[in-house]
């Protein structure tokens, strides 16, 4: 299968689904069998999955140590990972490793233990991110949660399974002007 064929067909491939497997560490994925789906997974000649979706929801992960290496063992084209479901785990932060997968368009992180709203800043580098879930994390209780996320990630179209409207964007911009201080430019003073 050519790379172009992969790009055209893998979006329709079922996910590599490791949900509800009591997985504690990412390395366990290598020895764990994915859940069977309605349609069989297709694999490359090397035995790696041709999907762009990885579901790790409803496990007990508290970090993503070795995530890149393990994903490279599981997926034929790890750089094309487009959807990652990490919902209902024990994650306390957004691991920067996610920002290395530039084709991510869907990230589910709801139902974890992420406290700091500033963690969202890490995802701003993902150019294709369109759908994000963070509800059910302690950060959701912070004042201005939705506005902050929408200001930080202006390209997303769905937040917490709810569509982002023009009114949401306008309100978020007003909130930003009222709550986020602009960074002051440092003025160099010429020495006399």
TrEMBL record:
Q: Which Pfam families would you find in this protein's record?
A: LRR_9
Keyword Membrane assigned: no
Cite the SUPFAM superfamilies for this sequence. Answer: L domain-like
Q: Where in the cell is it found?
A: Cytoplasm
* The UniProt record lists the keyword Amino-acid biosynthesis: no
Q: Which GO terms describe its cellular component?
A: cytoplasm
Q: What is its main location?
A: cytoplasm
Query: Superkingdom, according to UniProt?
Result: Eukaryota
Which of UniProt's keywords are assigned here? Cytoplasm, Leucine-rich repeat, Repeat
Its protein name is Transmembrane O-methyltransferase
Organism per entry? Prolemur simus (Greater bamboo lemur)
Name of the gene: TOMT
């Amino acid at each position: 299968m050519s790379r172009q064929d992969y790009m055209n067909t893998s979006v329709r491939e079922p996910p590599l689904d490791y949900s509800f497997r009591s997985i504690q560490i990412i390395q366990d994925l290598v020895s764990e069998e994915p859940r069977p789906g309605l349609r069989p997974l297709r694999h490359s000649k090397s035995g790696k999955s041709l999907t762009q979706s990885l579901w790790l929801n409803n496990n007990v992960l508290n970090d993503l140590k070795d995530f890149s290496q393990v994903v490279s063992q599981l997926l034929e084209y790890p750089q094309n990972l487009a959807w990652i479901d990490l919902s209902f785990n024990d994650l306390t932060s957004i691991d920067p490793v996610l920002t290395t997968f530039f084709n991510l368009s869907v990230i589910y992180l709801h139902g974890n233990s992420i406290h700091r709203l500033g963690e969202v800043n890490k995802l701003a580098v993902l150019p294709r991110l369109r759908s994000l879930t963070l509800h059910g994390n302690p950060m959701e209780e912070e004042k201005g949660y939705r506005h902050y996320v929408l200001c930080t990630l202006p390209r997303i179209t769905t937040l917490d399974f709810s569509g982002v409207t023009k009114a949401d964007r306008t309100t978020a911009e007003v909130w930003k002007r009222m709550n986020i201080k602009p960074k002051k430019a440092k003025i160099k003073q010429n020495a006399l």
